[in-house]
Amino acid sequence: CRSPVRSGSGTAAAHQVGVLKPGRETRDRLSLAREIACASRSIGQVLAGHTLPVEPLLEPDAAPVELPPRSRAAIRDMAYRTVRRMGLLQVLLSRLNRRPPDPPVLALQLVALEQLVAPLRDAHVVVDEAVSAARLMADTRPAGGLINAVLRRFLRERDALLLDVGKDPQARWNFPRWWIDQLKREYPGRWQQLLQ
Predict the structure, then answer these.
(1) What is the DSSP letter of 142?
(2) CA-to-CA distance for 171 and 181, rounded, in angstroms?
(3) What are the distances in angstroms from CA 17 to CA 7, 11, 124, 126?
(4) Burial (CB count <10 Å: 0-12, 13-18, 19+), residue 52
(5) H helices of the chain, where?
(6) pLDDT in tens, the chain (196 residues)
(7) What is the pTM of this model?
(8) How far is CA 187 from CA 175, 178, 183, 193, in A?
(9) Residue 103 near residue 41, CB atoms below 8 Å
(10) How many C-beta atoms lie closer than 10 Å to residue 65's C-beta?
(11) Contacts 24+ apart (CB under 8 A), 119-127
(12) First vs last Cα of the chain: how many Å apart?
């Protein structure tokens, strides 16, 4: 997620219809791998206790840079969708990972897994581009194999995992467990209504 725009690559068809082939960049749009990497940087900020950045980040502590508008919108969409499903995604990853990964790896897994839970594109493209996103960032580069394994395992066990985690309040309500517990204590008769 280093350079915001790479000049001249891509096809004329990609410029006309706005669809990128995996791994391709144009003047108008970053590759899907770079967009996933940028979204994971934003989610990393959320995991560190900050609000979701208004502008996508290219590096953890860097100032926002000018991105192609279509990529900015795609990155924001990925980050917002990930935050909306954070409870479900965290419970799923607690079952898919043998031990908690480092925060940058977890952020990347969250963004990629959301793309598989509510797919907008082919699952195998998402997995491939998420692994490519890991290779773009120094702090996630060694975890490319782990990301690949976790996402492919989710694809194999998708239905059973989603059924199983649906019983977990954090996954069901998409709120942190501490918030659900606090509402149960303070509003024992209405906590479920408040979470809806």
Answers:
(1) G
(2) 14
(3) 18, 10, 22, 20
(4) middle
(5) 12-17, 32-47, 69-84, 86-96, 103-117, 123-136, 144-165, 169-173, 177-186, 191-195
(6) 444 433 333 333 333 333 344 556 677 888 999 999 999 999 999 999 988 887 666 555 454 567 888 888 999 999 999 999 999 999 999 999 999 999 999 999 999 999 999 998 999 999 999 999 999 999 999 999 999 999 999 999 999 999 999 889 888 888 888 889 999 899 998 888 888 8
(7) 0.81
(8) 16, 14, 5, 10
(9) no
(10) 15
(11) 121/32, 123/155, 125/22, 125/32, 126/151, 127/151, 127/152, 127/155
(12) 36
Tokens coding 151:
């996402």
Tokens matching residue 134: 């890991």
What one-character-per-residue DSSP string does 24-58 give? Answer: ---SS---HHHHHHHHHHHHHHHHTTPPPPSS--S
In the chain, the amino acid numbered 194 is: L
Tokens, residue 78: 């990925």
